[in-house]
Every structure is written in C-alpha cells, then in structure tokens.
Amino acid sequence: MSNKIFRFKPILLHVIFWACFLALPYWMRPSPNSTDPQALQRYNSWTYFFVAFAFSNIPFFYLNTEILIPNILKKKGIILYLILLSVAIPGMIWVYYELQEFIIISDHVKGRGGGFRRGPFMGTIFQLLFIIAIGVSYRFLSDNLKEKEIQKEEENERLKSELSFLRSQISPHFMFNVLNSIVSLSRRRPEMVESVVIKLSELMRYMIYETTDAKVAISKEMVYLENYIELQKIRFGNDIEITFNHKLADTPNSIEPMLLIPFVENAFKHGVGMVLNPIIEITLLDDREKLYFGVRNKVSSQISEKKDDSSGIGLTNVKRRLELLYPNKHQLKITEEGEYYQIELEIQHV
C-alpha cells in the first residue's frame, strides 16, 4: 500500500503545481471596483485569456522536460537545445496571439484588448522563460534524485550480498571448530561423544531454521549461546571455569543472528590448552537503550600459541558485519592486559 502511495506522489505534486499556476491570474489580478459592464467584461476576458494561455504552457513544459532536456540537452549539447527553444518560443508566442484574438476580440473589446501590446508581450516572454527555468530545474533535480535512488538500491543490494556471504561463512567456520572439538573429545573421553553430537544437532537446528530472518530475538540468541556453552562444558568438564551471566530487557529486542557466537568461540579456541587454570566469563545484558556483551578469558603469557589458517576469521567476519549492520551505533573494545583477553561490545537499539 505504501509503495502505491509513494508512486502517486510525483503525480500529486504535478497536479498541485499546475493548479496553483492556473490560479495565478485570479490571485494576481484583483477584481475591478468599477460596476461598468464593459470593465467587468474586459476583466473577465483577460482572466480567461491568461488561464487559457497557462493551460497551453502545460504541454510546453512537458515538451521541454520529457523530450528536449533528456534527448537534446543531455545527449546532443546545449547549442542544439537553444536552437530548438528559439523555435518553440515563437510558436508559443503565436499561440498567445491566437488565444488573444479568439478570446479578447470575440468578446467585442477589440479596441481595448486586440493588437500588439508591449506589456502583455513582455509578460508572455517572462512567463515562457519562467516555465523553461522551472522545467530545467525540475528535470535535473528529478534525474539527480533518481540516480541517487538507483545508487542507493545498488549499494543496498551489494550490502545484502556481502552480509549474506559473511553470514554463510559463520556456519562452516563454526562447524569446523566443533568437529575438531568432537575429534579431540573422542580420543580423550569417547563416552561423551554421543551427548555432544545431540547438543550439536540442537545448534544446527537453530542455525538452519531460526537464522533465515534478518533479525532474531535476543532471547533466542541467548539460548543458542547457552547450548554452545553447555556443549563446551561437556567437552572440558571441570578442566575450565565457565560462567555465563545474562539479563534481558522486559521488552523484547532483536539482533542479527549468529553475531555474538564468534566472540565466545574465539574465547574457547584460544583460552584453553596451554593456559593454566583457564577461565571464561561471558556477560549478556540488554535493556531498552542498548545491548552489552562481554567475553573475558585467560591467555597464556608464556607460550605464543601457533594459530592455524582459519584463526581470526570469525572476529574479522563479525567486525565487518557490525560495520554494515550498525554503523555509528556500536562500540567494540578489545583489550589484552596481563593474562586476560577481553572484548566488550555495545549495540545501540534503533
């Protein structure tokens, strides 16, 4: 419905403009105070004439804006455009005198209204120049707005394609890390593999069926994080201290799906292994104004972990998604102090 209304807006603006233009003779020419019938007849005749001439300007306006400007001025140059205008303007002046002869003289006021009169003639010239100026301004402004709209649509499509690609990267990257975890678990604690696979199926169900929309409820994303953390608890048991503190707003808010998991995944990827007494602390706080998400984990200060080729893909991905989805509405702070690595993300709700 809104698209139909938007489509009819230009037509409505044109109707309003021409209605005001046609009403100008009534606004600009006050009614005569004289009760002389001939004065009233002369006033009415000239008013009808100016309205009729204003009507004749409508096709002249669209001849200029729809044919001469796009096909001549913009494609073949201003010289040919001015030549054609120099032909069109005398044509309009001829229309002016024909209307004058038909309306003024036919109303039996030939002696007072017919023939060449310098005032009305100059008024006609200025009116035609005004119509030409309005037409040129309108056409260039309209074309400029259309070009910007096309550029905006192309940019939106490009951003949609890029976001779709970035989102599609999350699942393979996530599955790569989880499968590596299952392989490691099958060697250390094979009896736990079955429960991990079941938990993994729940995560996959969310990724396949719940993340098709542009936004998901933060509560669903929180449950997804809880399932992922439970999976890691099954994998590591008591070898790692994991805490997840969360509090959601009374009014439901939404977020881009799979936006927070790379930070948690990165903490488990680099916060265990050679780390003594590993600790991972996750905080999710949401209110009406903003979302706060923090992840803090211990890192090894003695041994520099050798990173594989996929290391950092998730963080690079999520940083780009934040730039595209929440420009000037998010803050991402990454700090590494001593044996702790911490990320803090704030997203302003629109």
Automatic annotation (TrEMBL):
InterPro entries: Bact_2-comp_sensor_kinase, HATPase_C_sf, Sig_transdc_His_kin_internal. GO terms for molecular function: kinase activity. The keyword Iron does not apply. Keywords: Coiled coil, Kinase, Membrane, Transferase, Transmembrane, Transmembrane helix. Residues 138-169 form a coiled coil. The chain crosses the membrane at residues 12-28, 48-65, 77-97, 121-141. Residues 162-239 form the Signal transduction histidine kinase internal region domain. This is Histidine kinase. It comes from Aquirufa beregesia.
